[in-house]
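Entry 14. Ran structure prediction on the chain below.
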Amino acid sequence: MKALNLQKLLHALVVTEECSLVAASKRLHITQSALTRSVKSLEDDLGIAIFRRKSTGVELTNEGERLMKRARALLEQAGEFRSEARSLSSGSRSVVSFGLDPILSHNLLSTQLKTLISESRLMQIQVKVDSRSTLLAMLLEKSIDFFIADISDFKPSDTSNINIENLQHLRGSFFVRRRHPLSQQQHVSRADIYSYPILTPANVHESIWEELRWHGVDADKTERRQQLICPDMTILKDVTINSDAVLASSDLSVAEECRKGKLVRIDHRITDRSDFRSIGLVTLKDGKLGIHAKEIMSSLAATLRDISAQ
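Output, structure tokens:
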């Protein structure tokens, strides 16, 4: 039997609570296909069937019911173990680990890292840059103390174990290189945008991409859409500037490139303001943050407000 993967176990536990792969995938902020693969992989690792399908969703098998009774306690113990291990790292209780959404990381870290290095007394500062779904899983596992990310798609079911503080609203847009075929067009349609490869720092348009992955904008037209997800904004901007790809990101992330004329925002009109994303600070409800974590958290939140107001 392979070593137990706790993230797969967490996925299975959420499916158990929701009794639905669709509902569980939305709660975990991953695609249904990715969740299905995760659960199937866990079943293969354990050599048993955890779930059986039924007309209204899924239900636990007898073996799965016995396993899931122990899963929650095991995940809680693993989280406590990780938290204690991080606290004892380097022989002292002076380690802080936090996460940042890729759309924020460059702007926040470029202004904050120097301050953290020069003023912090911490032995170790760990920064995780990843998608909000991955950061949420890490927080629930107590691998990080807090994270700042796009919280727009969180549902009430996601917030049972976490606290969310709304920090700022950022506009999300589509950007292309100067002289791109779409750069001079007015009222660019979604169909026109999605005819080009889309680059994103995280799966920021997950619901749209789930809809379009195998279907075109027109219902009777089948066509696979091309999307590249990479958390490195520097790479994504460089590729966009030197190709016909379209970058989906926040205005904040590309402000400098737009000022220099290297990137242009596409004239894509949104009437329901869904292009404005809520950025929030996420912590565990039962988490006990140390003074260093609170100081860093407060400093990052203040910096985000300052740079967003510029």
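The chain has three domains: 6-74, 87-169+277-309, 171-276. Will compare against last week's run tomorrow.
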